[in-house]
Design a protein that fits this description.
- It contains 14 helices and 15 strands.
- It is an alpha/beta fold.
- The two termini are about 40 Å apart.
Length: about 400
C-alpha cells in the first residue's frame, strides 16, 4: 500500500490503507473491539501519511542513529512556517517548545495556570479525556455549555461564558478545544476576540488545543483562526497542537506548546520540575518536521476526501436513518449524532456494537449534553464507511 502522492486526486485515498494491515499491526482502533467489529470510534483516520513523512523516518532508521538529538529548534521553525502559510499567523520559533503529546502539554499548562482549588472551564460535550484532567489534578471543573440550534448546529455563546466567570470568580483557565471535538464547530473571529476580552477583564487564561486545525472543510462558514493571532491574546493564551490528527501519526509522540509572551512561557515552564515533561521522540520530530514542511498538498487532498466522506454519511443517514439528528461538522472527521429517537437505551454505542458490530463512541463519555448521542469517525475509505453504515442504518430507526 502506498500513500497518495502530493496533489493527488482525492479518490486515491480509497486505496490508501488495508484493514488487514491495521489489524495485523495491532492498531488500537482496529483491534480494541475484536476481529469482527468495524471501528468508527477513536479520533484517528485510517490513511497512511504522505511519503515525505515515512522517508524522513526511514532516513534516521537507515543511519542507525537513535541517540540523543538536538532537533527541537527544527520543530519550532517548521511550525512557524506552516502556520504562516496556512493561517497568516507567524509565531516566534523561539517561543515554540516540544512536548510528548497534546494532552501532556494541555495538562501542564492547565495545572501551571490554575492553582490548586482554582476553577477550570470546559465546554461540554467535550473531548472525553479532558474530563479526566480536573478530577486527577484536583481542580474544580466548571462548564460553559454548548447550545444546539437546528440551523446553526452546536455553538458556544460568549455571553454564557461571561455569566459563568462573573458567577464563579475562582475560574482561572478556559480549556478551549478549537476546532471543537466532538461537534466539529469552528469558532469565528468575533467569538475568539470576545474570549480574549473576557480573559483580560475577568483574569483567566486560555489553553487552546488546536490539534484539528488543519481539518476544516472547505464549505465551512468559518475559517480556522489561531487563538494566538487575536490581538491581546499573547498575555493570556497558550496554544498546544500537533500534526498528529492530520497526518495520523499520534503514536510518534511529538507536539508543541506555543506562546507569544515570554512571561507567560516562563510561568508555565517554571511551574513544573524541569525534568518532568521530558522531550519529544526523535522519530516523532522527523515525522513532524516533514509533515509541516512538505505535507501541505497531501493535507489539502485529505480534507477534500474527508468532506466527501462527511457528505456520504449525511446522505445515507438522511435516506436510511432519518430519525438521527446530524448537523454536518465544519471540521474534523467526527460526526456527533443524536440517536435519542432510535430506541437504543441509555448506552446507544454499546447497543450498536452488540446489534450491528460497529464501534462508535458513547455520547455520555463526552459529559453534559452527551445523553442519547454517539460520535462516529468517518475518516476511512468510502467502501469501509459504506460497510459501517450498512451495519448501523437498520439499527438507527425507532
Amino acid at each position: 500500500m502506498t500513500a497518495p502522492t502530493p496533489g493527488a486526486p482525492a479518490g486515491e485515498f480509497d486505496a490508501c490503507f488495508d484493514p488487514r494491515l491495521k489489524r495485523g499491526n495491532r492498531n488500537a482502533k482496529w483491534t480494541r473491539h475484536g476481529p469482527d467489529a468495524l471501528p468508527a470510534w477513536i479520533a484517528e483516520h485510517d490513511f497512511r501519511p504522505p511519503a515525505a513523512v515515512t522517508r524522513a523516518m526511514r532516513a534516521t532508521i537507515d543511519r542507525g542513529d537513535f541517540g540523543y538529538h538536538d532537533l527541537e529548534d527544527d520543530v519550532g521553525e517548521a511550525f512557524a512556517r506552516w502556520s504562516a502559510t496556512r493561517y497568516g499567523w507567524s509565531p516566534d520559533p523561539d517561543l515554540v517548545y516540544t512536548c510528548v503529546d497534546v494532552l501532556q502539554g494541555v495538562t501542564a499548562a492547565v495545572t501551571a495556570l490554575a492553582e490548586p482549588g482554582a476553577g477550570v472551564i470546559l465546554t461540554p460535550p467535550i473531548y472525553h479525556i479532558f474530563l479526566q484532567i480536573c478530577p486527577t489534578a484536583r481542580r474544580p471543573q466548571l462548564e460553559w455549555l454548548m447550545r444546539y440550534d437546528a440551523d446553526l448546529g452546536w455553538t458556544l455563546d460568549p455571553d454564557d461564558l461571561e455569566a459563568l466567570v462573573r458567577r464563579e470568580r475562582s475560574a482561572r483557565v478556559l480549556l478551549w478545544c478549537h476546532p471543537h471535538n466532538p461537534t466539529g464547530w469552528v469558532a469565528g473571529r468575533a467569538v475568539l476576540e470576545r474570549i480574549v476580552e473576557l480573559a483580560h477583564t475577568y483574569d483567566f487564561y486560555v489553553v487552546s488545543d488546536e490539534i484539528h486545525a488543519d481539518v476544516v472543510h472547505r464549505d465551512s462558514s468559518s475559517r480556522f483562526v489561531p487563538m494566538l493571532s487575536i490581538p491581546g491574546a499573547a498575555e493570556r493564551v497558550v496554544t498546544v497542537t500537533s500534526p498528529a490528527k492530520t497526518f495520523s501519526i499520534s503514536g510518534l509522540r511529538c507536539a508543541v506548546m506555543a506562546y507569544a509572551d515570554r512571561g507567560l512561557r516562563r510561568r508555565v515552564r517554571e511551574a513544573h520540575p524541569p525534568l518532568l515533561l521530558g522531550h519529544a521522540a526523535r522519530t516523532g520530530i522527523d515525522a513532524t518536521v516533514a509533515a509541516w514542511t512538505r505535507g501541505a498538498a497531501w493535507a489539502d487532498g485529505l480534507v477534500a476526501y474527508l468532506t466527501d466522506r462527511r457528505d456520504q454519511l449525511a446522505a445515507r443517514l438522511a435516506a436510511e436513518a432519518p430519525a438521527v439528528r446530524f448537523h454536518r461538522p465544519d471540521s474534523t472527521f467526527l460526526a456527533w449524532l443524536d440517536a435519542s429517537a432510535c430506541d437504543l437505551g441509555d448506552a446507544p454505542a454499546a447497543a450498536l456494537l452488540q446489534q450491528a458490530g460497529a464501534a462508535v463512541s458513547e455520547g455520555t463519555e463526552f459529559g453534559t449534553n452527551g445523553e442519547g448521542h454517539v460520535r462516529l469517525n468517518f475518516g476511512t475509505s468510502a467502501a469501509v464507511l459504506d460497510e459501517i453504515l450498512d451495519r448501523l442504518a437498520p439499527c438507527l430507526n425507532p
